[in-house]
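Two quick folds needed for the group meeting slides. Do the first one here.
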Amino acid sequence: MVMRADETSDLTYFHPVMPHWLQRQAATRGDGLAVRCGHQQLTFSELNDAAMIAAGQLQAVGVQPGDRVAVLMANGIDFVSLVHAVAYLGAILVPLNYRLAPSELAYQIDDVGSRILLCDDTTAAKALETAAMLQGDLRVLTAGPPESAGDHRTALKSLRSLPTPEARLRSRIDLAEIHSILYTSGTTGRPKGVMLTYGNHWWSAMASVLNLRLHRDDVWLACLPFFHTGGLAILMRSVIYGMAVEIQPRFDPDAVNAAIDAGRVSLLSLVSTMLEKIIEARAGKPFPTQLRAILLGGGPVSPALRQRYIDLGAPVVTSYGMTETASQIAAVPLEDAPDPDGAAGKPLFPAEVCIGGPGRCLAAGEVGEIWVRGPMVTPGYWGRGEEARPDGWFATGDFGCFDAAGRLFIVDRREDLIISGGENVYPAEVEAVIAAHPAVAEVAVVAAPSRRWGQVPVAFVVPRDGGDLDTVALESYCRKRLAGYKVPVRFYRADRLPRTATGKVMRRALSARLSSAPMEDEPY
């Protein structure tokens, strides 16, 4: 049975049914460029054919409406076709972070109840290791041609090698239905699956285009990973707008600059650490005028970086958003970019943003929790039941304020959240892994400044029985259980952890012990 958002939420928005987005673009501008990646490129008509074939092959392995299809793949055209194939089936896309450890992936696959995992040649080994950890029946297939399985071709079958039956495909989209589930760590450290409806994606695209506007020859460069909402949002906007996308499988500042300087792209999405590397690689060379906007998100921007891109005249549009809002929900108006004061922007239409909460919105300059409301906001988390939404408002857990001009400023990205290279690292999740080590009595993880990644995690550890701290063994232990960017770059021995009267660890007291000099270490 197909999952509808209005079955799990009290939110009531008008959810029309409309033609399948890719199918409509194939019919109206089929010869137009849809996507290119390296030397491979497809028109909208060709991409539609690829998506329908993929849908038929998924149907051949038993994928039904409402089934969750887990995808562990790098950015590429095969990934794009799967994004639209699930829409033809009424299935749900679950893009997974290929940087996670197999145990982390196994948890998410089990939590969402997926029975199929699609991989590529770069993730085949991890996919098979993940499947081995699960007790259930998980079928692992490679989405590429048979030879793409590489050394694992004997253990894997290719989706393309399967017979394609007469497909029973849907030609219409109900905006109330769930299209994708993206996992993000909660403040408790347990990953949660954010459900995003077609309506969430549609209204996010509408809000963005009202700000950035659309040129017929726009090409959006996608170097953010597609398992992030910022990367996936580009693919959804492509078929809604009829806009081309240039894909880069991995972020490479030189490759990004080459695409920019060749005049191939006009729009670009980045996090601040990416932009810093791109500017460094440009060595003072200004950005060409064809680049209309650099949409910047993923955490705070340092004053030093802001001054660098202002000096270069880079068209940086800072923004604020999260997975739960299907990408940005506030952004600097294009005509005001770049903002010299570091504002995250203004609420995008038709979103609403409130500081302090519904019924008690704070005045300009007052700091409080950021609450959001609008049709781009998730209906909830997979398997977590309904959440209280007073009058439809969603509490982000982030803190900020408005100024007198209505600009939103982000004060803190959750009290304990560490943003390392644009990736969210939640201390509670890392602490749970370290605390399971038999030599550890207590542990607290906090952020340390890093020249390369903005922030990196460090751990304060109280050894069991007052013994010595084997930092090498702890690091090795963590690397087997956590993604590289979550592994602390330093392990400090502590006799005890500072706590409040109620027993809560005082993280700020631990942070105060760290040097203010940024670390050079690379966590991954």
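Then this one, please, same format:
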Amino acid sequence: MMLCKLSLKNIKKSIKDYAIYFFTLILGVAIFYVFNALESQTVLMDVSSSTKEIIKLMMTMLSSVSIFVSFILGFLIIYASRFLMKRRNKEFGIYLTLGMSKRKISMILFFETLFIGFLSLIVGLGLGVILSQFMSLFVANMFEADLTKFAFVFSSSACTKTIIYFSIMYLIVMIFNTFSISKCKLIDLLQGAKKSETIKLKNPILCILIFIISCIILGRAYYIVAFDTLSLQYAKDIIKPILMGVVSTFFIFWSFSGLILRITQSSKKFYYKGLNSFTLRQFSSKINTTVFSTTIICLMLFVTICLLSSCLTIKNSMNANIKELAPVDVMFTTTMNMDKYYDNFRSYGWNDNQIKNSHYTTKEMFSLFDFDITKYLRDYIEVNTYATPDLTMNHTLGSKLNQIRTSFPFLQYDTMESIMKISDYNKVARFYGNEEYSLNSNEYMIVADFKSMIEVRNIALENHETINLFGHTLKPKYDSCQDGFVEMSSNHINTGIIIVPDNVIDEDYLIQNHLIGNYKTQDKNEITEIENNINTLAKDPKSKEYLLPSGTTKLSIKEATVGLTAMVTFIGLYLGIIFLISSAAILGLKELSESSDNKERFRMLRKIGTDEKMINKALFRQIGIFFMLPLILALIHSVFGIKFAMVILEVFGDEQLLLSIIMTSVFIVFIYGGYFLITYYCSKNIIKERY
């Protein structure tokens, strides 16, 4: 009973000085509950069956991510406990001096961890339940569910999972604390606060050499991921620049930490101004732990910035893409004249009858199944696409082919190009609300919206490469690709369509017929019923003789886009916020521990006449150095990291990148900056004790 009372008294005393620790535990519990409660919230939504499958997949992925998150939070709690114990070394030393056994001290820590865990779980779960209601509205809005059915939701499964995971974490902390107490010595407990770590790195020449080498290695890693992505052919190839970045980051901090004191001492005016000498000495006195922890935090911040920026870019871009790239309700495509290229189409799994009977347009093919698609459409157009083995990318790239092959060896250069009449393309452009074009009888142009392929094609277009098509020699009207597309999608996938004058086309090379239109109805349920009726045609015995037109609808694009957007957004936010909180919390806890250790040093400053304003300013700068150093290098890393991420994700478009970076900056300022301010004010409170 006495040990319980002592534990409660210690907790009450610690809450004032270590608000960050309790705040982080509560926040961790709340976030863990919120993201694991999504399943209970989405069950109540009135959404389509395909959307339900997407939500089910999303929850499976979030459950897997939660396991990873629990390891991060577990590490954070153990790390925090280490500093809390260090803060109380002298207290434990006094206990031992007074005759208390290490077993009883361990019991005190056991009860403290138990009470802290119980308190953080209760408050965190309460906060999580409240925040999850707002998340329900966000999820419902993202999936366009019926908000009139919104109701208060408590997820018992998420609550149970949160309690189990955090109980395991606290149990590990209890074991860790018991082990730490059993290994400690009385002299170390009583004198630990007076010890400073030895500054081992004294040779400035060695520091400069290591710093320069590290910067060169880091620069090489930047170059590989940002400008030499073709060398990253396989997933394993990215490991090399990652390792280069990690190692160089560590040694940059290691060498910089050894140099900073020498550099500032060379400027007497700066070094002896105010309390600069005190602040810099404080920083240097903890150099060993600073270098390692700063490296870890820098890398975590880097991952956070790239993760949040990338996932928000995908979300924002894909939402914008739906309006731009799916401007009408439906597009049906029928592949025709497949028997001209028999072997090519057998590889797709189509049977001989389907290939031989591929001489019908989209409307005619539906008619063969006794289905009139036009009666469901308010308006529609029909256009054709052509292809010939005599016009592949090998031909359109002309004299630049070898140069481009060297730079882009993985492209399929023998694939037949898609060809359209200028009148057909303009018909589509007019229907979509896009720009229309005109051509002279001896000209051609290329429309595309896939960024990498635009760069490839522009090399040839800038060289004014001519093409030979159906006995006509054509020159490019423009020296670059023009923006445009025909096939509806959620992403920029048009790698290039060759647009030529109508009189050039040979109708014998018709390869696809497209029917593009808008439904008469805009009711979601009625549209779903129409599309279900079309899907049932696949069960018709005629489907073995004739190949049904493939369909792309705005509704299916929207559902798929929303599903992918939701998965990317939630997983990105989940990991990003956890990484950001962990980084800031580790720094905050470390600085609070440093402030506790340095309390006597600040007291000495007051004794020699230093006013409170100068002391607070020195404290602010000291904490600012620790918070800003990893953030500055993480921001530099992120410039190249985001550039690499955009190369991988360019199919989604990067038009919304700036907005995503702004949103990420808001997260960092709010969370990271908030932890900085809390750390500063808590540290001020610590150094003012018994003054």
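Slide caption for protein two: The beta strands are 330-335, 377-386, 418-421, 443-448, 467-469, 472-476, 482-483, 497-500, 510-519, 550-553.
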